[in-house]
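Pipeline run #58 for the internal structure catalog. This entry was flagged by the ingest filter as a single-chain record with no existing model, so it goes straight to prediction. Upstream metadata was stripped on purpose; only the residue string is passed forward. Reviewer on rotation: M.T. Logging verbosity set to normal.
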Amino acid sequence: MVLTIFLSILFLILICLFVVAVANIFLPAVKKQILQNTDLLFSPLEKNYIFRNVDTSVQASQERAVVLSDPQKQKAERLQYNGINNCALIAKTYGSLTQNEYDCIGFGDCAAACPQNAIIIQNGTAVVTNECCGCGTCVAVCPKYLIKMIPKEQKTIQYKNDGEGEHIIEIPRKKDFKFWRNWYKMLR
C-alpha cells in the first residue's frame, strides 16, 4: 500500500516535471525557430500586420490617411544624401531629394509617428496600409503636406501636385489576415 502511494506520487512529480520542461524549454525553442523563418512566409505588409505593436488607446475615426505620392513612380534623384534620415530636416534644408519637389522624401517620419504602425515605406515612398485608424498623427508630421485625410468609404482620390498632370490613387481593399494573426498569437 505504501509502495503504491509512493509510486503514484513519484509518477505525478515526473508528469509535472515533464509539463514544466515542455512549457519552459521546448515550446520557446520551437517558437523561436518558427519566428526566425517568417521572412519566407510573409510579405512586409503581412509581417507589419501580424507582429506589430498597436496603441489601443487611439480612437478610430471615419477617415483614413492617404499619401499623395505614387510608390510605383520612378524618382529622378537630384542629389545624393548620406546624412540623418529625417524628412523634416531634408525638407527644410534641401526641399527635396528628387527632381520633383512634390515627391515623398521617404525616410519614414510619418511611419515612426503612427501609433497603429499603419505606414510602411515602399520604393522610397510612404504608403498607408488598411490598418489606419484615422487619428491624423501622420498628417501633422509630414513636412511636405503630402498626407491627406479622406472618408473611409472613398475608393479613389485625384490629386495634382507636379507638372505631370493629374494622378489617381486607388485605395486598396482591405485584406483579412486575422486568421494568421490569431494563429501566431497562439504561439506567443
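catalog note: The chain has six helices and six strands.
catalog note: The first strand starts at residue 63 and ends at 67.
status: ready for reviewer M.T.
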